[in-house]
């Protein structure tokens, strides 16, 4: 099953594909790598057994995630505000794909902050590293994770998981390990497409209902703190450690 995080119809899809063609035509990158790519060959071999083939978003389709209208419906600034992400924060983009949110997080946290761009596909990590180099961002580190462990450092202010949940094969373990990386008042924000369909995103039968996400998060030891309603096509759930804030109603 091919899962497309943000399928774009009609002319928007054509524009995205055109953007990919332009990027492929770029033959040289800066020789100075500002992102540190952590790719362990043993982990790459392990993925052949830990990740069912075909469920992950195909790297060759990354251009579909870069539609010119995505800023309008994804509202990244408001998303970061809702998670309390500020200058100097340490955050993670879990399932970062091609780094669309990574670069926006990088600009938000500034030179004194840190962004960990995590994905379990080496091709995605390589794509992010090239993008970060091209955009001159010095506060991003890439992390090659496992399907049940993002391998994030401790002391994070926030972890953001956008349009990735249906691809997870062991969400409870993954969320439990992500929670272990948080500060006591840290937040995990999970954003995915509503079941009703409409707009961008995968077909309805490839989406996950928010109550299933909440159940998984609770099994992972997290508490639902808020349900943000400002996104048109997606639900937005905010979790934290039990007792870190008033739970959502």
Written overview of the protein:
With 249 residues, the protein is α/β, with parallel strands linked by helices. The protein has a single domain (10-240), classed as Rossmann fold (3-Layer(aba) Sandwich), CATH 3.40.50. The protein contains eight helices and eight strands, in the order H-E-H-H-H-E-H-E-H-E-E-H-E-H-E-E. It has helices at residues 10-24, 41-50, 70-74, 76-82, 100-109, 122-135, 171-180, 210-219; strands at 36-38, 90-94, 114-119, 140-144, 156-162, 182-193, 223-228, 234-240. Strands 1-4-3-2-5-6-8-7 form an eight-stranded mixed beta sheet, sandwiched between helices. The longest helix has 15 residues, at 10-24. The N and C termini lie far apart (35 Å). The relative contact order is 0.15.
The helical percent reads 25-40%
At the first level of CATH, the class is Alpha Beta
CATH architectural arrangement: 3-Layer(aba) Sandwich
Low-confidence spans:
1-54
Structural class based on helices, strands and sheet pairing: alpha/beta
Q: Tell me the strand order in the biggest sheet.
A: 1-4-3-2-5-6-8-7
The number of E-state strands comes to 8
N/C terminus separation: 35 Å
Tally the helices: what do you get? 8
Quick one: overall form?
globular
Taking Cα atoms only, what radius of gyration do you get, to the nearest Å? Answer: 17 Å
Please identify which CATH superfamily we are dealing with.
Vaccinia Virus protein VP39
Residue share in β-strands: 15-25%
Largest sheet: 8 strands, mixed
């Amino acid at each position: 099953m091919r899962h497309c995080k943000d399928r774009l119809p009609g002319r928007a899809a054509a524009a995205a594909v055109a953007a990919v063609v332009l990027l492929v035509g770029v033959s040289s990158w800066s020789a100075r790598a500002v992102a540190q790519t952590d790719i362990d060959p043993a982990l790459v071999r392990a993925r052949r057994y830990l990740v069912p083939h075909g469920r992950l978003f195909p790297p060759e389709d990354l251009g579909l995630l870069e539609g010119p209208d995505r800023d309008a419906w994804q509202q990244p600034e408001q998303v970061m505000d809702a998670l309390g992400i500020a200058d100097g924060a340490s955050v993670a983009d879990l399932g970062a794909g091609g780094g669309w949110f990574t670069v926006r997080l990088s600009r938000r946290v500034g030179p004194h902050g840190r962004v960990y761009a995590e994905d379990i596909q080496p091709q995605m990590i390589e794509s992010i590293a090239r993008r970060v180099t091209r955009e001159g961002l010095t506060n991003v580190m890439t992390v090659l994770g496992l399907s049940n462990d993002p391998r994030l450092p401790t002391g994070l202010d926030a972890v953001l998981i956008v349009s990735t949940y249906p691809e997870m094969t062991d969400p409870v373990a993954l969320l439990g390990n992500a929670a272990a990386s948080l500060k006591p008042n840290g937040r995990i924000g999970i954003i995915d497409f509503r079941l009703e369909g409409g707009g961008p995103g995968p077909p309805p039968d490839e989406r996950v209902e928010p109550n299933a996400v909440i159940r998984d998060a609770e099994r992972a030891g997290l508490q639902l703190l808020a349900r943000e309603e400002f996104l048109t096509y997606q639900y937005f759930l905010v979790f934290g450690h039990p007792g870190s804030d008033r739970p959502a109603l």
